[in-house]
Each structure stands twice: as structure tokens, then as C-alpha cells.
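Reopening this one. Same input as before:
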Amino acid sequence: MIDNCQTRCALLLFTLLTLAACNDTSQQRFANTEPVPIEVKIVLVTMFERGADSGDAPGEFQLWNERRHLDQIFPFQGEHDLHFNAESGILAIVTGAGTAKAAASIMALGMDPRFDLSSSYWLVAGIAGFDPEDASIGSAAWAEYLVDGDLAHEIDPREMPADWQWGYIARHTKVPFDPEKPTPRGEVFRINGSLAEWAFELSKDTPLPDNEEVAIARARYVGHPNARKPPFVLLGDNLAALTFWHGEILNGWANAWVDYWSDGDGEFVSSAMEDTGTIQSLTYLDKAGRADKDRLMVLRTASNFTMPPPGVTAAESLLQENVGYTGIDLAVETAYIVGSVVIDEILSNWDTYKHQIPTVTP
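Same output, byte for byte:
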């Protein structure tokens, strides 16, 4: 009786151990079949599309989609599905307009387990308003400083002290442009200046498109010699704000605000709505080991100016902007042309640039 009991116990133990071993083997087999994340070489960051993804008037995304054959579509719970080309390794995202949508979209992409973004270069390629003091419509600017135009204190200018030039002051300060400003906490981001300079040097002599309509528009900017030049490539910094501001007075504020937060090193050139949101998320993703923030490049191209020409009021000019930007078609074309110069160089030398961020050769 005891032998039979021992035999049954032994058989039960053997059965349990066999089942456990099978379970471990099944789990290991399941783990081995989990998909390997897709290596992405370039993340192309665009902010909007005007209509369809191809075949009509292009926004920031369409030319890339058509010409780079971004035919593999990944569903994405954001503004727009992701588009990818497996051969080139280019992945394109449309974030939606504004810092909030940009930050949310970049964070969602960065945490997406379908993609390996650890060595990816990130190229923001979008249109912007440009300061006519610095460049013309259709020009392209590579940024080093990204300054936030929203994170501040504000009072109505009609209630501000008589010795204040603007009713906008940095948080935790006493007067506009207080020299005793606190350590920035989102007001300014300095991205990889060496990479921006490399991109500029690589693309600065790129022939840019022009057209008669834009030439007529820029000729009106008497007293602004850079605004009247044909389009060109330059280095210039970006102010990101959710409010579409316009006019000579606010243009003066933008120059002063960028100068203030960059400690005099930056130069306001482009005004857009997203880039501080993009870099904020990349900063967090970098800390999490999901992306390398030092591989971000910001390219903005001029679709319009941030202030009117002489003889036109700010209100008149702004209302005309609402009808349509004079240089939007030129700007999206320029973004593709200039951005492609840099993308093609990186992809052609991927074995090097995957491990080493390019810099200007002395």
C-alpha cells in the first residue's frame, strides 16, 4: 500500500515537473517570436498637411511622402498615421499644430515599441514666419536656440508701468528682461549647435526656388535689404508660441525675448508654434534612453514675414495672412530641397553617422 502511494506521488511529481518544463519552453518560444523593433535612421518631423497625403496642394508632409516613397503606413493614435520607407529608414510623423500636440506626438512616438529610435536623427522640416531683417520668403534657417514664447507672466500693456516696453516678463522676475532671471525651466533649449552648423555648411550653397509672386511681395520691404534678396540658407533661431502674433512691435519683442533667453548668443529669425514642445519631449526621451536629443536638427523655411511692409498696418497684413501665405508653396519645396541635402548625406554614410554625430571639419 505504501509502495503504491509512493509510486503515485512520484508519477504526480514527474507530471508537474514535465508541465512546468513545457510551460517554460512555451514562454521562451513566445519571447523569441516577439517582433524586433524597426531601426529608424531619420525621423522626419512635420507639423501639418493641407489636404490629402498626395496629389493636391502640399503641406509640410506631402512632398516627402511622394518623393521618398513613404508607402508603409503604421497606425498611430495621434494627428496622423506614421509613414515609413523600409529601404531608406525614413519615418515621417505629422504632429499637429502647437507645442502641446508636438510634445504629445513626439513622446508617443518615442515610447512606441515598434521602433528603435536610439540612433535616429530627427529633422524638423516646417514652414514659419521670418523676420524681414534677417531673410526673405523662401529662405531656410537652421536653428540652435529654441525659445518658448508662452512660458511667462503677462499684463495688458495698457496697465503696465510707464517705463516698461512690453507687458511680458519672465517668470519670477520683477521687470521686463530682468538680468536676475532664474535658471530656465522650459523657456529656452539649446540644441546641438555643432550639428546645426554642419547642416548649414552642407546646405548653404544649395540653389533655392523662387517665383515672380514672391519677388513682388518681397520688393515691398523697403529698408529691409535681407527681405528683398532671393531665397538663401542661413543660421537663425526659432521662437515657438501658440499664439500667431504679427506686427512690428511684437517682432521687436520677439527679437528681444530670444536675445534675453539665449544670453545674447541667439538671433531671432523664425516664428512657429511647435519646436519647444518637440525638444521638451526629446529631452525626456533622452533621459529614458529612447532617443538621442543631440541628433535633433530644426529647419524652418519662410512662408511669410512676421511684420508688414511699410505702409501696411499690422491688422491689414494679418488678415491677408489668414487668406493664405504668399510663399507657402515655395517654403514647403525649400524645406524638402534643403532637408534632403542633409538627409542624403547621413543615409549615404550611415555606417559612420550611426555611431558618430557629424561636425564641421576644421
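So the earlier flakiness isn't reproducible anymore. For the record, DSSP finds ten helices and 16 strands in the chain.
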